[in-house]
Amino acid sequence: MLQGMQEPIEQSGAGEPDNFQRLWTPHRMAYIKGENKPTGTGPGDGCPFCEIPKMSDQEGLVVARGSSVFAVLNLYPYNSGHMMVCPYRHVADYVDLDDAETAELADFTKRAMLALRKASGAQGFNVGMNLGHVAGAGIAGHLHQHVVPRWGGDTNFMPVVGHTKVLPQLLQGTRELLADAWPAA
User: Fold this and answer.
1) Closest CA to 36 of 138, 182, 180
2) What is the pTM of this model?
3) Residues tagged active-site
4) Are residues 122 and 116 in contact, defined by beta-carbon separation less than 8 angstroms?
5) Measured between alpha carbons, how far is residue 81 from residues 51, 66, 119, 125, 161 in Å?
6) Is residue 132 left, alpha or beta, with left meaning phi > 0 and alpha meaning psi from -120 to 50?
7) What CA–CA distance (Å, rounded) separates 148 from 156?
8) Nearest-5° angle of CA 45, CA 80, CA 56?
9) pLDDT of residue 125
10) Is 23 exposed, middle or buried (0-12, 13-18, 19+ CB in 10 A)?
């Protein structure tokens, strides 16, 4: 038995006993099934990030509105307080944001972190964007920056369950590729 592993626990209704504890998140089933997903990539194709600004703050779960971007709670959160900062303009790629959108997106990300620290004592954050379907974007047509609060003892499943970090290439090879591709000033 691996260090830290426990004997299987009998769990009524969970099938054969195993070493896994179950964390039930039924609210995520709508996300998994693709409910409320856009039917296409355009702004008129049911994009929720284009529809949310038309709603009241309460109905759309909008935390704050700026002139170029808004902060909204994630309907299918990874953690309590999981926010997204979205431009109003329907744009898929970060490099297509104009300077005002880029600046306000950065400012709102900072404000989201400050609000989460004040309201919930967040000790850390995962902040980032998944650009394109292959990168994991659930709604690839309208970029959005995730701000996910984290606390001590809250961790990713791969290192905990599999004692594994997934890296597709040796770090030195990755470093060389990035250094070669880095744009000149």
Assistant:
1) 138
2) 0.69
3) 144
4) yes
5) 21, 19, 9, 11, 25
6) left
7) 12
8) 45
9) 92
10) exposed
Contact 140, 132 (CB under 8 A): yes
Q: Which residues fall within 8 angstroms of residue 106, CB to CB, at 6 or more apart? A: none
Of the candidates 81, 78, 167, the one whose C-alpha atom is nearest the C-alpha of residue 119 is 81
Which residues, at least 6 apart from 168, have a Cβ–Cβ distance to it below 8 Å?
Answer: none
Helix or strand holding residue 83 (H, E): strand 83-87
**What is the DSSP track for 25-36?**
-GGGHHHHHTTT
pLDDT in tens, the chain (185 residues): 344 445 555 555 556 666 655 555 665 565 566 666 666 666 676 799 999 999 988 888 888 889 999 998 887 777 778 889 999 999 999 999 999 999 999 999 998 988 888 888 889 999 999 999 898 888 899 999 999 888 886 665 554 555 544 444 453 444 545 544 666 65
Q: How many CB atoms sit inside 10 A of residue 149's CB?
A: 26
